[in-house]
Amino acid sequence: MNPTPKQRIWMYEAMLKSRLFDEAVFAAYWEGKKPLFHMGKGPLPGEMHQSFGQEPTAVGVCAHLGPDDAVGAGHRPHHVAIARGVDLKRMAAELFGKKTGLSGGRGGHMHLYDNRVNFFSSGIIAEGMGPGAGMALARKMQKKPGIAVAFNGDGAVNQGAFHEVMNMAALWKLPFICVIEDNKYAVSVTTRESTVVQAWQRAAAYDCPGEYVKGNDPDLIFAAAGRAIQHARDGKGPAILELETERLHGHFIGDSAGYRAKEEVAAQQDPLPLYRKRLLDEQVLSAADLASLESQVKQEVGAAMEYGRESEYPAPQEALERVFARGPTGRAKI
Amino acid sequence: MTQQAPDTGGSARTLTMARAGREAVIAEMRKDPNIFVIGEDVAKLGGVFGTTVGMAEEFGAGRVIDTPISETGFIGIATGAAMAGMRPIVEIAFVDFIGVCFNAIFNFAAKTHYMSGGQFKVPMTLMIGYGGGYNDAAQHSQCLVATLAHVPGIRIVTPADAYDAKGLMHSCLQDDNLTIWMVHKAIWGLGWLGTAIKTAMATVPEEPYAIPFGKARIWREGNDVTLVGYGITVHHALQAAEKLAAEGISAEVLDLRTIVPMDREAIMKSVRKTGRVVVADEDYMNCGVTAEVLATIAERDPRVLTAPAIRVANPDIPVPFSRPMENFALPDADKIVAAAKTTLQSSC
Amino acid sequence: MTDITVPQDLWDNDDEGVIFAWIYADGAVVEQGRLIAELTVEKAQLELIAPASGRLRILAPAETIVRKGTVIGRIEPL
Q: Are the beta carbons of B25 and B169 closer than 8 angstroms?
């Protein structure tokens, strides 16, 4: 299953949007944090896990998804959220902790939720597995179309939740795809050091398809994701899709990744310029159209960041709201 | 990585809590070959908070073990090793992660000595970072001290400075039970988590020393109101005491130092003197450590109080991400000052 | 007398660092090879080792911003 020219252009656009967003966030993050790096300072406080290099995994998978589907991501969610179509302005505002953010500033960068596109993310490793499969279960129970996808890192496969949920998803033939982004590092620990058999091979234990895609190539990922997702849509149950990718920066901003060999880091390839060149070489679109698209994306990202900066902070006491959903008696109280 | 010259009893050193705790661990590991460290990113990285820097180099991969992200698995493994004579130190960098291994901690490690009628000991120490204040949001800013303290079978210490960090770590490692050594992230002494709390650094002797469990510490004596805290709230209370002193109010700052067992006599001794108490805790308010302190007073002698007690704690909400909301939620010196003044204005 | 200089190989790039803390007080007797200060550069917490034995003189207190090559103290002979 190969992507159409339109889909390929969409994938490049989404990757570029993610990249430019992460670049803008990177620049803003450092404001107020030099020379003394204090995480709580500056307009973008807290931890920040960026997706440089991992953009292909999100677009190759999300290109197949529609409004009936659901997506969960982990502590490195930006590329997935953007590929999924999360509101970019409100996402930026959430990172800035503003009232206009997706969660009104309550969640922050690791806890992005957008119910318009059935998207959620969690900062606890492998936390997306259960809820992701649960969204698949609901669709099955409600006899509604749609599948659920949970994005996990290579480290997440060693959490108990991975095994427990895959077993149940397979047992109950849930329309659920477990995507593993193998960027080869769980902070400082490599996949080889943590995992005795590569996770996609565990699919045999769950009697479901498992596939590993090398190369961090959007077109190859698109093809494999198409197979896995069709399997789920056909009612045949879950699948494991493990995707080789590259973490081009450290684990989070501020991590110099000194534990990685310099030669290894130098050998990493950035998927974005590679794909851009391929689209031009194969004449998927003209240089002029590409320039126009890039300019558009740049504008959109700029507008989103400005929205984030200019928006107001919530009032401090708003912290007390939204713990519970409103009940029949009206206003929710703690 | 540096090699420290052998101890020769040199000049006084001011250390961070991270370094002091690490010094205790290294000293004990040099003495006892049964002690090993296990956890995520402890070997190659030296710990996300620098708790194990240099240890893999000194003791080798066999005694400083990097694990997969499998908390339930490796807590269980460490427990079994402890039951069979080893003395593991398990690092859980963020207390929030106990969620994925709470069963292994509270149902097995904490209860095995009891359920076996004393046949099996679990000499295991968990090394845990907790707390917020730097916008790490709901899943990385919790304290959960009360959650852990609530279950029988666990000894819990919360040093508030480098001197106590080292002394309490020695006690934890020498104890034959499940012990948890917990440090608030903002007072580890890591620049990237905030350097504001300089009072957490302290002069630390080179030689080992053990601070007993169940002994609170008075950081500042006073007569008008008792400010009870642990971890970071000790430092907030110290700042509050300074501000109160400027207004002629004499506050006593009491550091619980160990949560389990709690030094209830020290609490009573202080409130008998002052008659007023403010308890400050960054953990959630409901059913918390603050409540345990007040229950102690109510049970032993509520008549010592001349005004209603006040608790300053995180309201019962997840820790918000956005800065104004997080600042609203977390305790600080000003909130403690306001509470102390309220106790002086009211009476019962 | 020996200068205490922020070593050129203490970190990789040309970023500024900050003196996080001095382990010993001004005037303390220190030993060559021992840790005497901690510096932070971005998220890294780095160690500064005494280049000589003698009496420590602190020229740049904690929270001073430094670059590689900055002289932050001296060790005087006893």
A: yes
